[in-house]
Amino acid sequence: MMSLQEDSANHDGQTLNDRVEKLLSFIYNHEGLDEARGNPHKILAIVDEFAIQNAMMIVGGPKGEIVTELIKEKQPKIMVELGCYFGYSAILFGDAVRQNGGERYYSLELNPDWAAAARQLIELAGLQDFVEVIVGRSDVILDEFYRSGKVTNIEILFIDHYKPAYLTDLKLCEHHGMIVPGSLLLADNVIYPGNPPYLEYVRSTVEQKREVAKSGPPKGYNTTGLLERTVKSWMPAGDAPFLETVGNPNIVYHSVLRQPEGERDAIEVTRCVGVQEA
């Protein structure tokens, strides 16, 4: 998702969009492209080659392996991703869902330019008929998924978008009853840049969540402990969640941090294991 306030730049002054354009040029001019066409892992190998010399916001191999292992275990029919960027995780996880008997992979992306780049890479990987990139706000699209019947139960949700929206989007899904026993939530970047509000929520007991819910729906996003740049990036200033809700505090989660050895970041793996009677 492109910043609607500021397009973040790396140390050499390149904006994220500049890097995506540079990546596409690198791929389309790569000597191994013809051989890689239609092969998701070979396309990603070219991306990894590019990423060695260029800072890219990708899930990467070690964390990606955690997710693909869980896809193999869960074998979802449908998997939803929040935050596509240029499609790395959509290719990696979409291919895993397809190989394990799935039917569809939905990747939600706010920025139409990044979504267009992702679609190009997804087509190069041969996944264009399986992975669907949908442009728009994640909370609005999730609401539309539920109301249209497109996705009524979350099997696996990969969360890697606007950091303050991790928690509000989860509560929206809870509110609609999309989180059910067996639902699997996989949240990236929970250590770097970090997401204390999300971690506190999925690690809380039902009693703790009920107590917080007594105050009613929160106003706006909870940005406690979030880096200023993650709050100011991606969404318009003064933006608010599409739906303000306490979610469903009666849901019981079992949540663990999965941090690959030597990695500074981790995946929070959260399972819905039941619903406690009020």
What does this structure look like?
The structure is a single chain. A 7-stranded mixed sheet has the order 3-2-1-4-5-7-6, with helices on one face. It is built from 12 helices and 7 strands. It has a single domain (about 60-275), classed as Vaccinia Virus protein VP39 (Rossmann fold), CATH 3.40.50.150. It is about 40% helix and about 15% strand. It has about 280 residues and is α/β, with parallel strands linked by helices.
What's the gist of this structure?
The protein has 278 residues and is α/β, with parallel strands linked by helices. The chain contains twelve helices and seven strands. The chain has helices at residues 16-28, 33-36, 40-51, 61-74, 88-99, 112-124, 138-148, 165-175, 190-194, 196-202, 206-213, 228-232, and strands spanning 78-82, 104-109, 131-135, 156-159, 184-187, 251-258, 267-275.
CATH topology category name: Rossmann fold
Output the CATH class name. Answer: Alpha Beta
Name the helix and strand elements from N-terminus to C-terminus, one letter apiece. HHHHEHEHEHEHEHHHHEE
Shape: globular
Question: What is the rounded distance between the termini?
Answer: 39 Å
Would you tell me the overall average pLDDT?
91
GO biological process, one term: catecholamine metabolic process
Protein name: catechol O-methyltransferase
Family: Belongs to the class I-like SAM-binding methyltransferase superfamily. Cation-dependent O-methyltransferase family.
GO molecular function: O-methyltransferase activity
